[in-house]
Design a protein that fits this description.
The complex is a heterodimer of chains A (about 325) and B (about 250). Chain A contains 13 helices and two strands. By secondary structure, chain A is mainly alpha-helical. Chain A starts with a helix and ends with a helix. By secondary structure, chain B is mostly helical. Classes of the chains: A mainly alpha (about 325), B mainly alpha (about 250). Bound molecules: fe (ii) ion (FE2) (3 copies). One fe (ii) ion binds near residues 47, 77, 80 and 156 of chain A. The site of one fe (ii) ion has 4 residues of chain A, from helix 7.
Chain lengths: ~325, ~250
């Protein structure tokens, strides 16, 4: 490495160590930029793809109040997506390119959204568990070293905790309701529990990005730490609902002050990540379809904007000639 | 028909229009042509379902049989729904959705302007609150009619096609019937006679700016707002919307 480059790198690391935020115009290593673009765009894609499983129940929400709440929630996720694409663009990425990468299968999004929503209780479970897991990760990211990402997270976290409470409240209504409703809630927990734990990503020993991301303070906690934190917070909430976490190995450990829990099915995790989950194909098809069928709308909007600015120019010229 | 019955029917019309169109728009959520428009359409859907809740809750009170917003939304069948045919038409594509929205908003705006002086105090308050939202809906749908009408050749063609297809459902909006007349007499409802020229004027102006040809006022299909003959689409909307309440009757959600 040439000495100038080395000095820049050292300076950069010193700023990180001093807890200074890195801003878009600051010098940063290419790898830092790339890592962030990858992570932020994955996050943005997750917000947008995540609209699909929940959107699946908007038309069937069981009351008008629930319908409005769910619509607003899914709309929030679209807003998060927009906001995060914006954060990625501060790093020189282009939203269109990022979306193309998603549609071409080159970019990832959170695997959890490749699971189906089969009952109304799933909407509760997603809010409670999926938004809940997202919050663990995102609260940490409010202190990430890249300024625009950290600031985006502050705003997004507020909404995510609202979503989480809303999801929990859906399940609470079911668990305090009729037997069929309670069963619905239990069945949802059975199906969403393990995929939620998988949301934190591979175990630390298999995570290829963690070490460098920790050094750059993009991440501040490892996948396993966050996962443990999630389990510790969530199990008592399941107890309060009166439904059972589907893990026979789950046990409070007096000594460590944490819950011990069973082994995650990593085969399933890698299968879903690589495209073989229950809804991977449908999710991508839905996104690609929306994008392709929207092409004429985007083209027309552009053509109209152009026509209008030309018309304005002509009018301005004409006005000058008259004067 | 008694004035009391007409009052209930009149409120159902308003509530059902808002609910069914809001429901249709909400079908776009997650599938919009542009993320920004996904958000904008969901905004309108949110406003409309919100308006439907207030109006249906009020309708239930006026009826006086203990039906609340959810009982009215989830436990009436096709023949008891009172929305106009226009709003139950399927989304098809963005052109249909925008044209349907505009043809309805232009009417709904003038309707709610008039309802701001209704003698039904609750309805007046709802109209007062909704008018800002509806003004925004009308601005949004008008702008998109113009943008897509005067955009590319393809968008123009799609818009003209949607307009030609949906036009026959516009007659019902401004044609008064017994309920409208009873409510006008009672000072509760709006005068459709007064709204019609305003509606025609707004529609012509926007279509002209959009370079779209206004269809001949030929055959007009009706049967939505009096519930006599809905289109086949409404049954599917209700089957989906009411699924949980029908499959698990009498539960709290
Ligand atoms: Fe989100
Ligand atoms: Fe998120
Ligand atoms: Fe969320």
């Amino acid at each position: 490495m040439d000495p100038k480059q080395k000095a820049l790198l050292e300076q950069f690391q010193a700023r990180i160590d001093a807890e200074e935020k890195i801003e878009p115009k600051d010098w940063m290593p290419d790898e830092y930029r790339k890592t962030l673009i990858r992570q932020i765009s994955q996050h943005a894609h997750s917000e947008v793809v995540g609209m699909l499983p929940e959107g699946n129940w908007i038309s069937r929400a069981p009351s008008l109040r629930r319908k409005v709440a769910l619509l607003a929630k899914v709309q929030d996720e679209a807003g998060h997506g927009l906001y995060l694409y914006g954060a990625a663009e501060t790093l020189g990425a282009d939203r269109e390119d990022l979306i193309d990468e998603l549609h071409e299968g080159k970019a990832k999004y959170s695997s959890i959204f490749n699971y189906p929503t089969l009952s109304w209780a799933d909407i509760g479970a997603i809010g409670w568990l999926v938004d809940g897991a997202a919050i663990m990760n995102q609260v940490m990211l409010t202190r990430t070293s890249y300024g625009p990402y950290a600031r985006a997270m502050v705003r997004i976290c507020k909404e995510e905790s609202f979503h989480q409470r809303q999801g929990y409240e859906i399940l609470l209504a079911l668990c305090r309701g009729a037997e069929a409703q309670k069963q619905m809630a239990q069945d949802a927990l059975n199906r969403w529990w393990w995929p939620s734990l998988m949301m934190f990503g591979p175990s630390d020993k298999d995570s290829k990005h963690t070490a460098q991301s920790m050094r750059w303070k993009i991440k501040r906690k490892t996948n396993d730490e966050l996962r443990q934190q999630f389990v510790d917070v969530t199990v008592p909430q399941a107890d309060f609902l009166g439904i059972e976490v589907p893990d026979p190995a789950l046990k409070w450990n007096e000594e460590s002050g944490h819950y011990d829990f069973g082994e995650i099915n990593w085969d399933e995790f890698w299968q879903v990540v690589s495209g073989n989950g229950p809804c991977n194909r449908q999710r991508m098809e839905a996104r690609v379809k929306a994008h392709q069928e929207g092409a004429w709308v985007r083209e027309a909007a552009m053509a109209y904007a152009e026509k209008r600015s030309k018309r304005r120019e002509r009018e301005a010229k004409a006005a000058i000639q008259v004067a | 028909m008694s004035p009391h019955q007409a009052h209930f029917e009149y409120l159902l019309r308003l509530g059902d229009n808002a609910l069914i169109l809001g429901h249709r728009l909400s079908e776009w959520c997650g599938h919009g042509p542009i993320l920004e428009q996904d958000i904008a359409m969901t905004n309108i859907a949110l406003d409309q379902v919100g308006q439907a809740r207030s109006i249906l809750a009020h309708a239930g009170k006026v009826e006086g049989k203990g039906r609340d917003e959810d009982k009215l939304a989830y436990l009436r069948d096709v023949g008891e729904y009172r929305n106009v045919l226009l709003v139950e038409q399927p989304n098809e594509d963005f052109a249909f959705t925008i044209v349907r929205q505009f043809l309805f908003d232009a009417f709904n705006f003038h309707l709610h302007e008039a309802l701001r002086s209704s003698k039904d105090e609750q309805l007046r308050a709802i109209a007062e609150k909704s008018i800002k939202e509806i003004a925004y809906h009308l601005r949004y749908s008008s702008e998109w009619v113009i943008r897509l009408g005067d955009g590319t050749e393809e968008s123009h063609r799609k818009m003209q096609h949607a307009l030609n297809s949906l036009w026959m459902y516009t007659g019902e909006l401004t044609t008064p019937d017994e309920v409208d007349e009873l409510m006008l007499e009672a000072g509760i409802g709006a005068s459709l006679g007064r709204i019609k020229p305003l509606y025609d004027e707004k529609v012509s102006a926007i279509l002209q700016e959009a370079t779209l040809g206004q269809p001949e006022s030929g055959y007009m299909q009706s049967g939505g707002k009096n519930g006599k003959m809905h289109t086949e689409h409404l049954g599917y909307i209700l089957a989906e919307m009411q699924f949980i309440q029908r499959a698990y009757p009498g539960m709290e959600w």
